[in-house]
């Protein structure tokens, strides 16, 4: 087994161990820098969002614009710098059952420890956008079984996501997740619930299945704004903070650029908004790289 594969396997083991240690958050990381920051602040896992990837890679909304291989490369870059488990969005599996199998293989190769597969029809949309369409429950179950069949690492965690709440209602969403659990999913995820009462019902309905249930903390206006303790009390084992780092980056950089331009294109006007050159180099490992270069005569 290669070193890369061994590292990925260890992170997958670690991801499953997290469920025994209480509720946790998978912190959104849209590039290598935000992945390093997530580790620095003590995040237990990283989440790579398709919404964020569409914005960062293509500068476009999350409406199925990214290809499977574009997302694979994006995940792989983040996994290269990550010592903690990486949970990566897999959208619909990018097509048919065979495409879903290839997605499973590529996400493992990239170094991810977890993915979620959704039951939207292509072209998919962000879960908090209007106008979504669904595949049949049977098609989704077939994709899940197909992915499980080619999964190399048994510790790799496969989450089944339904977008049915906004399309066909909560009852259909629960029936779909029950079917997905029977198909072999490791975890369950009902996207875009709209109230605390709905969250409570989801937690109660899914509890007998014995699988970890995921909550999405995204501040989109669809779901209640709850903290980790609150969602755990409603029956959710873990949560995503998927796009908040990207939104924070957008606001901070936009404001810095506006001040810079307004103040005569002077870096002095924005100096207090920036990490120093020295501190940033230390953050990205300059001292370690320099030491390695000296050790090997470079």
Task: Provide a descriptive summary of the structure in words.
This protein is of the alpha/beta class. The chain has 2 domains: 3-242, Alpha-Beta Barrel (TIM Barrel); 250-295, no CATH class. 48% of the residues lie in helices and 12% in strands. It is built from 12 helices and 8 strands. The protein has helices at 3-18, 32-40, 50-58, 68-81, 97-110, 137-150, 170-182, 196-206, 228-233, 244-262, 277-283, 286-295, and strands spanning 24-28, 45-48, 86-89, 114-118, 157-162, 187-190, 213-216, 238-241. It has an 8-stranded parallel beta barrel, surrounded by 8 helices. Helix 4 runs parallel beside helix 5, helix 5 packs across helix 6 (137-150) and helix 7 runs parallel beside helix 8 (196-206). The longest helix has 19 residues, at 244-262. The relative contact order is 0.12.
CATH topology group of the largest domain: TIM Barrel
Shape: globular
> Which class best fits the helix and strand makeup?
alpha/beta
CATH superfamily of the largest domain: Phosphoenolpyruvate-binding domains
Helix content: 40-55%
For the record, what CATH class of the largest domain applies?
A: Alpha Beta
Oligomer: single chain
- Major β-sheet, in short? 8 strands, parallel, barrel
Strand content: 5-15%
Report the end-to-end length measured between terminal Cα atoms. 30 Å
Poorly predicted sequence stretches spanning 5 or more consecutive residues: 1-5
Per CATH, which architecture of the largest domain? Alpha-Beta Barrel
What is the alpha-carbon Rg in Å?
A: 20 Å
- Count the domains: 2
* Number of H- or I-type helical stretches: 12
Mean pLDDT: 94
Number of extended strands: 8
Could you give the order of strands across the largest sheet?
1-2-3-4-5-6-7-8
State the order of secondary-structure elements, H for helix, E for strand.
HEHEHHEHEHEHEHEHEHHH
């Amino acid at each position: 087994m290669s070193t890369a594969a061994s590292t990925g396997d260890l992170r997958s083991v670690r991801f499953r161990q997290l469920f025994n240690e209480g509720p946790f958050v998978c912190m959104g990381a849209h590039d290598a820098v935000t992945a390093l920051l997530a580790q620095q602040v003590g995040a237990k896992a990283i989440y790579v969002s398709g919404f964020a990837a569409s914005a960062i890679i293509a500068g476009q909304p999350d409406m199925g614009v990214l290809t499977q291989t574009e997302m694979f490369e994006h995940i792989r870059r983040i996994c290269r710098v990550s010592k903690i488990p990486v949970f990566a969005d897999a959208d619909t599996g990018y097509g048919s059952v065979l495409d879903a199998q290839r997605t499973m293989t590529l996400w493992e190769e990239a170094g991810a420890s977890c993915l979620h597969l959704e039951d939207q029809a292509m072209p998919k949309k962000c879960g908090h956008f209007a106008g979504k369409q669904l595949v049949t429950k049977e098609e989704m179950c077939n994709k899940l079984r197909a992915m499980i069949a080619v999964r190399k690492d048994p510790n790799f965690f496969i989450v089944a996501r339904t977008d049915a709440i906004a399309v066909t209602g909560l009852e259909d969403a629960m029936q779909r997740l029950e079917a997905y659990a029977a198909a072999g999913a490791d975890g369950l995820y009902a996207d875009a619930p709209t109230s605390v009462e709905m969250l409570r019902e989801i937690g109660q309905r899914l509890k007998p299945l014995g699988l970890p249930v995921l909550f999405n903390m995204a501040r989109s206006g669809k779901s209640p704004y709850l903290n980790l303790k609150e969602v755990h009390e409603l029956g959710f084992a873990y949560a995503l903070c998927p796009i908040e780092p990207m939104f924070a980056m957008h606001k901070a950089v936009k404001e810095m650029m506006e001040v810079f331009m307004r103040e005569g294109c002077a870096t002095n006007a924005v100096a207090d908004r920036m990490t120093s050159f020295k501190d940033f180099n230390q953050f990205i490992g300059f001292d370690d790289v320099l030491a390695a270069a000296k050790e090997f005569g470079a």
